[in-house]
Amino acid sequence: MMQIYKVSQSVQFAQQMHQPIVALETAVLTHGLPFPQNVELAKEMEAIVKQNNAVPATTAFINGELTIGMGTDDLAWLGNPETPVRKISRRDFGIASANRLNGGTTVCGTMMAASLAGIQVFATGGIGGVHRHAPMDVSADLEALRDIPMVVACAGAKSILDLPGTLEVLETYGVPVIGYQTSEFPAFYSRQSGLPVDWIVNTPIEVATIAMKQWQYGLSNAILLVIPPPDDADLPQNVVEGWINTAVEEAEQNGIRGASMTPYLLERINQLSNGLSMHTNLALLKNNAVIASLVAIELNKMQLSKVEAQQVY
Length: 313
Ligand code: PSU
Ligand code: MN
Fold this sequence. Notes:
alpha/beta; eleven-stranded mixed sheet
């Protein structure tokens, strides 16, 4: 049978050698950040994962081919404003494949792709969730978190979303929300949201242990690891709220719906904040890539020792 996806040589090698791998998304590249910062960031995320002794696996659709791990030329091509790109969630896989489309995979799309390749750790910026004023607009990211056993490192979710509602759905879906050195669910731009996490951890090894224990019960949901933005990039919640309220109102007035909603809000907030929000966005993405790499290493060690133990007996 024809392979339904393409894995880069470095990711293939990492799989064979049982090296720690970190998946990276590309909706942030195609729909989340302006050019040229988007391309710079995508390259930097890969470099950071490598510096931290893990192997990056950036996923995307390129000419209709689901690609897991790619070169910097591919990243530059996807992030070029001239390249036609689709935002690719789970429902878009068939459409993209049948029509040879290019596209950036969302959190949901990246989790689907990464799990095909057996990858268990993923670093992103923020997850999608339940939208404000649009109670039926619930990101497919939440269902991917319900269905796919993977540690997803993020800075929580933006308060463009209904954060309490998002946490309720995560609870229903059986997704533990683990705070990395924080007792609060981060609101992406802000370290604080006033909402609690399910558990606080201080080290990567604790995260890996919780994941291993959770999955050993056959529970195949994700572990949501929420990491506050770095101190020096933290923006005050009340200031961010102002930008968000304006953006959400404008979206409503302009009849923005469906997959366009999140990119619209992100772009408006970038404009309203004069790039301040982007500075925070970049800082937290890089920070999440560091922590995800450390978790991937610990998880990998635990799984290797389990395999070795089975070989002994
Ligand atoms: N939130 C952000 N930045 C992003 C996204 C979300 O702060 O770039 C992207 C992610 O790829 C996420 C997607 O998976 O938007 C969610 O889109 P939707 O709400 O349409 O499911
Ligand atoms: Mn949506």
